[in-house]
Amino acid sequence: MKLLLVLLFYLVGTVLASPTIPLEETNGTPGDGRIIGGYEVTDSKLFPHQVGLVYNNSFLCGGSVLSEIFVLTAAHCVYGLLDITKLYVHAGTVFLYGGSNIQIANVSAFQCYEHYNPVNSSGDLAILRTTGFTLNEYVRPVKLPLPGTTWSPGTMVTATGWGRYNNSNTDLSGILKAADLPLVSGIECEIEFSFNFTDHMLCMYGFNNNVCKGDSGGPVIATGSTNFLVGVVSFGSIPCATTIPAVIINVAYLEMRRFISEVTGL
Ligand SMILES: *[C@@H]1O[C@H](CO)[C@@H](O)[C@H](O)[C@H]1NC(C)=O
Ligand SMILES: *[C@@H]1O[C@H](CO)[C@@H](O)[C@H](O)[C@H]1NC(C)=O
Ligand SMILES: *[C@@H]1O[C@H](CO)[C@@H](O)[C@H](O)[C@H]1NC(C)=O
Ligand SMILES: *[C@@H]1O[C@H](CO)[C@@H](O)[C@H](O)[C@H]1NC(C)=O
Ligand SMILES: *[C@@H]1O[C@H](CO)[C@@H](O)[C@H](O)[C@H]1NC(C)=O
After folding, report:
1. Ligand 4 mutation target, pool 16, 113, 115, 196, most atoms within 8 A of CB
2. What is the CA angle 91-97-101, rounded to 5?
């Protein structure tokens, strides 16, 4: 299926209804920290599906390698982006910028999930078509779950990203961080974010240990698996990693899986 270039309207500067905020980052500066809590990833072979999106020379979001050319991210990371020629993806590195095995690909087109709703973040998935990566031990596709796979509360997942590591400032992590977290019942997210939590979302809890701004679009894999994708980081609240959970998009959900298959053939 053909990827459409989605160019809608300029959204930078708008915010979702408090306390729901998207976790992309547009103006942070690299620091020496990471995700809130969690641990540093020093080996670039550990999360070889992790990519970083850079727009107009600023780090924007995380993402996952789906194949040599396709990257999965959150729709709110790219929706309304003005100039796709200013967007690139880096892979093969744990560093926010650079690294000896780094590969950089440009983005030729992207497609947001067709029912993505930028007001309430429903259906927050997008696929980028890139100029391509050379797959190796540092750059490897995620494994997608079987369509319809369900995840029960208590399932441990691992989120990775270069997002903010300290609620006191807006610095991004200079090195990739990971956090092992439990999924909790959707009711926990429904209460906090007062929307009707739907099956295409999963709720992830981590007091002092959770994703933050800049981690959006990034992978959440089954803990202990090398690269088995459970979800894509969507939104949470600021400050991060309080008793308020974060929301990820469930890639096994039939409708999300259909979208991925239709666009990528995977
Ligand atoms: C890119 O960044 C420059 C300098 O910060 C800014 O003036 C320009 O408007 C930005 N361009 C886009 C397309 O966001
Ligand atoms: C990506 O775009 C930049 C700037 O337009 C260009 O210099 C570079 O060669 C491109 N890289 C690839 C892999 O196409
Ligand atoms: C977070 O920032 C505060 C204030 O700058 C600092 O005191 C604290 O040590 C930082 N914490 C971490 C984990 O970097
Ligand atoms: C978001 O809004 C759409 C359109 O109004 C609605 O169909 C959907 O249920 C809403 N999603 C959530 C999670 O509230
Ligand atoms: C959730 O769904 C119920 C029943 O359909 C509806 O009355 C309520 O307004 C919805 N809440 C939100 C926040 O969309």
Report:
1. 196
2. 45
Structural domain count of the chain: 1
Residue nearest to atom 5 of ligand 5 (CA): 196
Whether residue 2 is contained in a domain is answered as no
| Residues noted as catalytic | 76, 124, 216
pLDDT digits 0-9 by tens, 167-208: 998 889 999 999 999 999 999 999 988 878 889 999 999 999
* Angle (nearest 5°) at CA 62 between 139 and 241: 130
Q: Is 190 in the pocket of ligand 4 (CB under 6 A)?
A: no
The residue range of the domain holding 182 is: 7-264
- What does the pLDDT average to over 199-228? 94
**Residue 22 resides in a domain:** yes
In a domain, 1, yes or no: no
Looking up residue 117, the CATH number of its domain turns out to be 2.40.10.10
102 falls within a domain: yes
- The tokens describing 201, both together, are 């979302």
Q: Over the stretch 228-262, which tens digit does the pLDDT of each residue have?
A: 999 999 999 889 999 999 999 999 999 999 999 99
